[in-house]
């Protein structure tokens, strides 16, 4: 993993040479820090309680587990239900490690003077991206009840298949959060330095490595099926790229705006509005 971080630092230093770092650079994004930053922080703060509630909601009992049949899993996902249980713990730790690295990786953007000059805008975008990702994840995970692969595994005791957080397999939050972080960093980097073509493809390809590693290990840990991982990757990529892109479009037009939303039921989020 040190090699990957070194590669990302090298890409950052290489990108810095594309422009004049001795002059103030205007951010390519229009960011409303006064409400986007606090709103996103509120969403992220309350997400802690959301995860705990989701774990309790996604519990399985022995009767439910006894009705699970691996033959009912689609052929593409079915092999994941038979992963080696002896490798679960090690794979879980690796997936957490790669996720943490992904979440922290955008800090490398401070090596760029262009980004540092617009640091608060970038931080606001980053928290907003993760807030949006959390809202999408909760909306899906609470709506779709899918048993995790390990609950089908014949090599596990019934006690290891029951309890909390056993039916929130779809989709992989770990992969989604990792992809959001990595693709956000790649998007911001290429936007600030107007990187196009093969260099842009190379940066995004490098950014995809940690989420892929997270996904592989989540499957080896018996937590998610292949389709869970693939969906998480697509959602994370859409958010990591889409949130900065929408703010970039907002810079070009006054018709696009972002506003915090608070419902009477206590739900919090961000709304995107476009005036025709």
UniProtKB/TrEMBL annotation:
<dbReference type="InterPro" id="IPR036938">
    <property type="entry name" value="PAP2/HPO_sf"/>
</dbReference>
<protein>
    <submittedName>
        <fullName>Phosphatase PAP2 family protein</fullName>
    </submittedName>
</protein>
<dbReference type="InterPro" id="IPR000326">
    <property type="entry name" value="PAP2/HPO"/>
</dbReference>
<feature type="domain" description="Phosphatidic acid phosphatase type 2/haloperoxidase">
    <location>
        <begin position="124"/>
        <end position="244"/>
    </location>
</feature>
<dbReference type="Pfam" id="PF01569">
    <property type="entry name" value="PAP2"/>
</dbReference>
């Amino acid at each position: 993993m040190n090699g990957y971080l070194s590669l990302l630092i090298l890409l950052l230093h290489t990108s810095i040479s594309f422009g004049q770092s001795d002059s103030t650079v205007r951010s390519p994004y229009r960011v409303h820090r006064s409400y986007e930053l606090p709103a996103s922080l509120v969403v992220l703060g309350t997400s802690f309680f959301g995860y705990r509630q989701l774990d309790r909601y996604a519990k399985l009992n022995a009767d439910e587990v006894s009705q699970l049949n691996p033959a009912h899993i689609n052929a593409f996902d079915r092999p994941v239900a038979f992963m080696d249980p002896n490798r679960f713990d090690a794979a879980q730790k690796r997936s957490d490690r790669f996720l943490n690295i992904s979440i922290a990786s955008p800090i490398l953007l401070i090596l760029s003077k262009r980004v540092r000059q617009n640091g608060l805008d970038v931080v606001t975008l980053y928290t907003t991206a993760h807030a949006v990702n959390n809202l999408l994840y909760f909306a899906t995970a609470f709506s779709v009840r899918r048993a995790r692969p390990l609950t089908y595994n014949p090599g596990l005791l019934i006690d290891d298949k029951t309890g909390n957080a056993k039916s929130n397999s779809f989709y992989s939050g770990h992969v989604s959060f990792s992809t959001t972080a990595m693709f956000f960093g790649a998007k911001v980097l290429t936007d600030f330095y107007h990187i196009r073509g093969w260099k842009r493809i190379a940066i995004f390809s490098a950014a995809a490595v940690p989420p892929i590693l997270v996904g592989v290990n989540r499957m080896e840990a018996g937590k998610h099926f292949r389709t869970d991982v693939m969906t998480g990757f697509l959602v994370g990529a859409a958010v990591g790229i889409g949130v900065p892109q929408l703010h970039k479009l907002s810079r070009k037009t006054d018709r696009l705006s972002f506003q915090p939303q608070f419902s009477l039921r206590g739900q919090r989020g961000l709304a995107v509005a476009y005036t025709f």
